[in-house]
Amino acid sequence: MEFFMAGGFPMWVIVVFGLLGVVNAGRFAWAPSPGRVRYLVAIGLAVLFAGVGGTATDIMAVCFHVPQNEEWAHSPDLHLILLQGLGESMAPIIFASGMLIAQAILAALGLRRLVG
User: Fold this and answer.
1) Quick one: CA dihedral 80, 11, 1, 102, positive or negative?
2) Most CB within 10 Å of its CB: which of 3, 50, 73, 83?
3) Which strand (E) or helix (H) includes residue 105?
4) In the prediction, which pLDDT does 32 show?
5) Alpha-carbon distance 15 to 47, whole Å?
């Protein structure tokens, strides 16, 4: 849960579209149809862009909030504060990657069945 919270609001976008993609990739693996391929690519791109955009948004938040906090900005541990913030900022792209891996595996199974 801490990992999810570290990513902030973009994580909700990733979970909604990621689950939508995984479910539809599962349906494609079960009953492959050429008409579903474009949809799977589109939903996968939505998850990818949500992950990239969420990561960029989180990095921007770190870059804005650390200098605004006087205690952090003048701390001898500034480098550690920035590292922790940047580490937390990676949550959206890591989560999106996991969703995309699951989608890709299921889509590959469906493509294998479709092609024969």
Assistant:
1) negative
2) 50
3) helix 91-115
4) 95
5) 9
